[in-house]
Each structure stands twice: as C-alpha cells, then as structure tokens.
C-alpha cells in the first residue's frame, strides 16, 4: 500500500511533519518520498506544480488521489487505514470532540507562531511592511496563545495527550508546532506544561522517525523565542 504513495516534503516544515507522523503511526513506512529545498525554491518546481498548483509542500499522492493540505492528508490516512497501526480518532464522544477542537485550534496556534518567525527572519515580509510595532504585537499574541495551551494541558494533568489519555490526530497535527517552538528557543521553565508535553512526544517512535533531518545535523536550539 505504501508503495502507491508519494510525498514531496521539506525539512522543518510543520505541515510536512504532520503527514510524516501520520504515515508512521499508520504503519505506512516505505512510501516514496523526496526531500526538496525551500532555499532553492524547489517547491515551485514543475515536479511539484504538476501535482500541487499552489507550489507548496507537502505534496502527497496515493494512487490517483492527491491531498496537498496536511490536515486533509492526515484525515484521509486515518479513514483509509482505520484498522492499521495506531487508532487516531477515539470512539468516545467527549475525547473525540476535544480532539477535533484542539486540531482546529492548532491552525491558529501555528499561525501565531509563523507570524513571529516570519517577522523575525524577514521571511515573506516586504521590507516596507516590516515594523517593530507589528513584531511586538505578534509576540504578544503568541504569548497569549501559549498561555492558553498551557492551561489546556494543566487541566488534563501530567502525562496526558492533547485530547486525553490517548494519542490522537490532535497530537499528530499540533506537535510539529510545539516542536518548532522549542527548536526556536521557547523556555520550558516559562511554559512547563508545554515542555512536559514536548518531552513526552519527542521520544515517540513516529516523531523520532520523522524528526527534521537538519535538526539532527545541527541539534543546537536557536534563541529566537527565548524571551517570549
């Protein structure tokens, strides 16, 4: 089955990482994959555009079925391979409701992180639109968001996943954001529950198997978010 799958991806991209974790959790190792370089603009190559006209990564294909949105690909993999690997959507209505809620809140979480990173490194922000006041506002919004996720994990208690005692799709799609936060220097002392969650999941086989290769090559954390 995995041999009918192709993933074009970029290292350090949370959307790509989501799909890779899902593939690992569903025991779909051995899929065709190609690592592309964002720096070399390979995500805008004809190879990608032929499958994904937006020129974005991930670009995922299973047979003739194309799913280029990471959430869609993760839902698809769980739906098509329900009885294989980890069950990622719980049966209980309370846990399932919380899973869906946290999944889609995860999009806001990722966006709040992105705008800070983009402004800090001047990625995709035209020179005339770079303002210190905007960076300050974006950092404040990220702090508010981080405190919200701290409170969610606090309510669930130590050793919990995002939707309760079981690892679910919520963890598949949100952990890459958390992993990126700590890669860029977020303080686990300031955000202990997120730090605990990060330490719990970073040892999970699916996460270790899909860990961004350039992070492995250079494991030193950045200090971009050390004061957040």
Oligomer: single chain
Structural class based on helices, strands and sheet pairing: alpha+beta
Question: Into how many domains do the coordinates divide?
Answer: 2
Largest sheet: 4 strands, mixed
Low-pLDDT runs: none
One letter per element, helices H and strands E, the order comes to EHEHEEHHHHHHH
Q: Return the average pLDDT rounded to an integer.
A: 93
Give the end-to-end Cα distance, rounded to a whole number of Å: 44 Å
Q: Let me know the number of strands.
A: 4
Strand order of the largest sheet: 2-1-3-4
CATH architecture of the largest domain: Up-down Bundle
Could you name the CATH class of the largest domain? Mainly Alpha
Quick structural overview:
Pfam families: GST_C_3, GST_N_2. This protein is α+β, with helices and mostly antiparallel strands and 228 residues long.
What do you see in this structure?
By secondary structure, this protein is an alpha+beta fold. It folds into two domains: 80 residues, Glutaredoxin, CATH 3.40.30.10; 125 residues, Glutathione S-transferase Yfyf (Class Pi), Chain A, domain 2. The protein contains nine helices and four strands; from the N terminus they run βαβαββααααααα. A four-stranded mixed beta sheet has the order 2-1-3-4, with helices on one face. Helix 1 links the parallel strand 1 and strand 2. Helix 1 packs across helix 6, helix 4 packs antiparallel against helix 5 and helix 6 packs across helix 7. The longest helix is centred in the middle third of the chain and has 29 residues.
């Amino acid at each position: 089955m995995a041999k009918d799958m192709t993933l074009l991806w970029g290292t350090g991209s949370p959307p790509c990482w989501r799909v890779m974790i899902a593939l690992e959790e569903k025991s779909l190792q051995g899929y065709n994959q190609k690592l592309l370089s964002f720096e070399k603009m390979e995500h805008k190559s004809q190879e990608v555009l032929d499958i994904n006209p937006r020129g974005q990564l991930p670009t995922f294909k299973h047979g003739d079925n194309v799913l280029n949105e990471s959430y869609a690909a993760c839902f698809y993999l769980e739906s098509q391979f329900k009885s294989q690997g980890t069950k990622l959507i719980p049966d209980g209505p309370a846990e399932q409701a919380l899973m869906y809620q946290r999944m889609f809140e995860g999009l806001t979480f990722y966006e709040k992180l992105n705008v800070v990173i983009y402004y800090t490194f001047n990625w995709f922000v035209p020179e005339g639109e770079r303002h210190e006041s905007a960076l300050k506002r974006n950092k404040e919004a990220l702090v508010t968001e981080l405190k919200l996720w701290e409170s969610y994990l606090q309510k669930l208690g130590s050793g919990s996943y995002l939707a309760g005692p079981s690892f679910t799709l919520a963890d598949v799609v949100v952990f890459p954001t958390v992993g990126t936060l700590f890669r860029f220097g977020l303080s686990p002392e300031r955000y202990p529950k997120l730090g605990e969650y990060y330490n719990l999941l970073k040892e999970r086989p699916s996460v270790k198997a899909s860990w961004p290769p350039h992070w492995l090559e250079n494991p030193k954390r950045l200090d971009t978010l050390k004061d957040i």
